[in-house]
Amino acid sequence: MDLEELKIDQVINNNFIEDYTKHIEAIWWQIVELDTDIYILNKLSKLPFETFHLTFPSSPFWGQIYKTLFDMSLLIIWRISFDPNKKSLTLNKINQLIQKNSVSDDIIEKLKTLELSPWIVDTKIKVEKLRHKLIGHSDIIINTYKPQEFFNMYRVRLNDLEKCRDDIVRYFDILCFDHNYSTRTREYLDFVDSDRETDIDKIFNLMVKDSPIFKMQDEHPEFWEKYYKKKIDKKDLEIIDYYRAKLKNV
Predict the structure, then answer these.
(1) Of 17, 20, 87, 182, which has fewest CB within 10 angstroms of its CB?
(2) Distance CA 160, CA 151 (A)
(3) How many other CB atoms sit within 10 Å of the CB of residue 185?
(4) Which of 134, 171, 141, 139 is nearest to 156 (CA)?
(5) Domain residue spans in the chain?
(6) Do the Cβ atoms of 104 and 11 come closer than 8 Å?
(7) Which residues contact 221 (CB under 8 A, 6 or more apart)?
(8) How is residue 225 annotated by DSSP?
(9) Which residue in 224, 205, 204 sits closest to 213, CA to CA?
(10) pLDDT mean over 217-245
(11) Strand partners, 102
C-alpha cells in the first residue's frame, strides 16, 4: 500500500479533511516560494556579472537580491522543516495531525516511518545556527567579533538548499496522497530546461547594454584594442563577444 495512491477520505476522518486541506495548502505556498527563490538564485549564479563589472561596489543591486533570496530560502526551510515550536505548521506537524485523525492503524504505522532524509541533519545544524545567530537574531559576540569565522564554519551552499528543497518536496508529495500539487513556480515553469529568456535575463541584458565594458569597443576602440582586450582572459572575451552579437542591434 503506497500512501501516494490513497484517496484522502481513505486516510483521515471526514471531519478533518477541511483542516487538512488548509494545512497542506499553507505549506504548499511556502514550498512554491522556496522553489521560486532557488530557481532565481540558480539563474543569478550563472549570469556573468563580473565580466561586465556588475558587482559590488559598482552595482550592489544583484548581490543584495542574491543575499536576500538566499536568507529567505534558509528561513523557509527552517520554518517548514525544523522549527520545534509546537504551534508551528511544519511537515512533521501535518504528519502528526494526519496520524491523529487517521482511519487506519496501518496508515498510522506507515506515517510514523516518514521523515526527512538522514543526510539533512548536517544541513539542519547549519541552517539552525545561521537562523538563530545571524538571520533571525543578531548574536552580539558573533556579529561583533567573528561574523566571517562563524559564517565559514556553518556555510550553506546553493546545492545544499536544492537538496533540502528536493527532500521537502518528496515528503510533501507523500502527505498529499493522491492529490498532485505542483511545487514549481507557475510563472517560471515554461522556462525550465528551455533556452527562452526569463524576466531575469531581460533585466540583466538591459544592464549589460548600459555597462562601460559592453560599450567600450564603440566608445573607446583604441583603449579596447591596445589595453583592455589584452588584459582580460579568453573566457571573458568570449562572453563579451556573445552578448555584443546578441544585443548589439536590440
Answers:
(1) 87
(2) 15
(3) 18
(4) 134
(5) 3-193, 211-250
(6) yes
(7) none
(8) I
(9) 224
(10) 95
(11) 12
